[in-house]
Amino acid sequence: MLLNSSCVPLQRWLHFSDLFEYKFINSKMANSSFLHNKEGCQLDFSDDNNAYMIYFVSFLGTLAVLPGNIVSALLMDKIGRLRMLAGSSVMSCISCFFLSFGNSESAMIALLCLFGGVSIASWNALDVLTVELYPSDKRTTAFGFLNALCKLAAVLGISIFTSFVGITKAVPILLASTALAVGSSLALRLPETRGQVLQ
Predict the structure, then answer these.
(1) Which helix (H) or strand (E) holds 51?
(2) How far apart are CA 144 and CA 154, in angstroms?
(3) Could you give the residue ranges of the DSSP H alpha helices within 80-135?
(4) Which of 40, 46, 120, 199 has the highest count of CB atoms within 10 angstroms of its CB?
(5) Which of the two residues, 64 and 132, has the higher pLDDT score?
(6) Which CATH class is domain 48-187?
(7) In this predicted structure, what is the pLDDT of residue 70?
């Protein structure tokens, strides 16, 4: 509520802002209307604890991939590249699907760490397969082409997810789970390179 010089209450319109009524703790909103507020994740750095949590969650996500890296390094030759890629993609698909059931902040952090821990093995297997599938004279071209496709897919994925994240969280999660499931089935069609001599 705004007061003019004669202390007469004025109508306050909050149009397309990141101010939400729930942010005004222990306040009474009078003659105020919130219209078309910005959707999505609005970060508020006014609280030092919030900034600490951002770095702490990033640290946990980085730490979560360490066991996956160790396991994939030890088992890459034993179980094969294709099985590691397909198996890790299936586990990533399942853990991504369970993100829709996370209702608390700690549950979401734990599920994201689980997703990062199981998906890193598929990235490692994909890196090894990319090196071993192509002969030396075509390897750098293949790396460049696949990296360009990855960047294009990342831009496309971000644009699709941002259009749905303000509406519902189920659609981006189901799209990611479906993409991982399709990727795991397509991975089994690649030739096995374990034990073969590189060209």
Answers:
(1) helix 48-79
(2) 15
(3) 81-97, 105-133
(4) 120
(5) 64
(6) mainly alpha
(7) 92
> How far lies 185's CA from each of 87, 182, 192, in Å?
10, 5, 14
Q: What is the DSSP letter of 198?
A: P
Residue 14's beta-bridge partner residues? 34
Nearest to 96 by CA among 68, 73, 124, 119: 119
Which residues pair with residue 13 across a beta bridge? Answer: 33
SS3 10: strand
Task: Answer whether residue 37 shows pLDDT above 80.
Answer: no
Q: Is 42 helix (H, G, I), strand (E, B) or coil?
A: coil
The DSSP element (H or E) to which 15 belongs, if any, is strand 12-15
Q: Is 13 helix (H, G, I), strand (E, B) or coil?
A: strand
Residue 119's closest CA among 196, 183, 56?
Answer: 183
DSSP codes, 149-169: HHHHHHHHHHHHHHHHHTT-S
Please name which of 27, 115, 24 lies closest in space to residue 65, comparing C-alpha atoms. 115
Look at the alpha carbons of 118, 168, 100, 175 in this order and tell me if their dihedral is positive or negative.
negative
Domain ranges of the chain: 11-42, 48-187
Q: How far apart are CA 134 and CA 50, in angstroms?
A: 46
Query: What does the pLDDT average to over 109-138?
Result: 85
pLDDT tens, residue by residue, 90-122:
898 898 888 878 778 888 888 888 988 998 998
